Amino acid sequence: MTDYVAPPRTGEPSTEEILKTRKEHMFPSVTHYYRKPLHISKASMQFVWDVESKKYLDAFGGIVTISAGHNHPRIKARMKQWISEDRPQHTTVFYLSEPVAQLAARLTKLTPKGLNRAFFTNSGSEANEMAILLARQYTKRTEIIALKHAYHGGTIGTMSLVAQHTWKWGGPGLAGISHAAQPNCYRCPWGAKPDTCALECANDVEETIKTTTTGEIAGMIVEPIQGVGGFVTPPKEYFPRIHAIVKKYGGIYISDEVQTGVGRTGNHWFGVLHNGIIPDMMTMAKGFGNGASIGGIVTRDEIADSMKGKIHFNTYAGNPWATMQAEETLAILEEENITQKAANLGELIMGGLRELQKKSKIVGDVRGRGLLIGIELVKDKQSKAYATEETMEVLEEARERGLLIGKGGLYGNVIRLTPPMCITEKDAQEIVRIFGESVLAVEKKMGY
Fold first, then answer.
1. Is the pTM above the cut of 0.85?
2. Which architecture does CATH list for 78-335?
3. In whole angstroms, what is the distance from residue 256 CA to residue 151 CA?
4. Which of 4, 142, 210, 359 has its C-alpha lying 20 to 30 A from 70's C-alpha?
């Protein structure tokens, strides 16, 4: 056939037209953040532009997803080359494909020793579904422990692991799922302080196993830092204790690295490695593909080998287009020493935020690690009443000043900062400046 030449673009639908189409033809669960919905039309590295050509510093990264940068030139070049050579856009995993093998090799060089077998999915939800399936297959048991306030996905299986009513619907889900206490030092259920903490939250994992399961578990799935839960960062000592408990009751330890993976927490490639343990399995997505629709799971040989004799097929898992982008993303992050960069810039941002906390009336807690930072807003620092309305106002004020940020937590009162890891020191300073101005503006507007 003759070469096809695409017609020039003649303009995008207006914001109003898109909203009308969404309302008429999409599920009503598809919602938006701002009073005036944000319509993004262009993106480059750490910046995005709306249809009115207003430029924003993106400090949310498509919900912790853009890692190397929007439209990174190296990834764009690989994609253009792929198309120009008529390489396959899609092919079944029953055929061989270079990118999926190259990605598996590169990924397992970055994972802890012993976690050298990989499987790829289309999303973090699917990766966590696979983790639960594999834990049950390997142990020949069914019961799984998760944490309260956890978020692990939006499928029926992963929603069973979720412990927030806002993200959990559609019925009871999978049987055999139990939830232990959230290890939240800012809102400790036992009222403990750092100098009086006896890791009651870790002990609750054993109590949960003893009282809500048969005592023979398949495993436990844990986020090193709870993402949707509000970037809750447990004490480092918590993890060795619960790891030992999981092993005591015969389970495998699964680390959900969908938000904490591929260098974002700084100093290490995966969040769990800050805590002195090696998991049996890790799941990942989001920044792993820098926006490509891909998730993954890595585990030990003997756990992967429990799948022998089974056929586990997914039409798009291991898609060459997605795995090529993920492999190039990891190459970029590795060559740019992103683990050190994320650590340094995270310290800069968190230092500025802690200075803001001293003079702000509503900044109750600053937490996180690397470029995964949470700021909990409260109506009063003594009562710690959830500042849900104030949080939305801070988002609006930041947007007006050209900064995009996110929110999370069961009560929607935790600001989430997860910029693309290509940001500069100047960008980090801008994030602190604009966020501080936004908080103080909200305090003034709301009479604090």
1. yes
2. 3-Layer(aba) Sandwich (3.40)
3. 10
4. 4
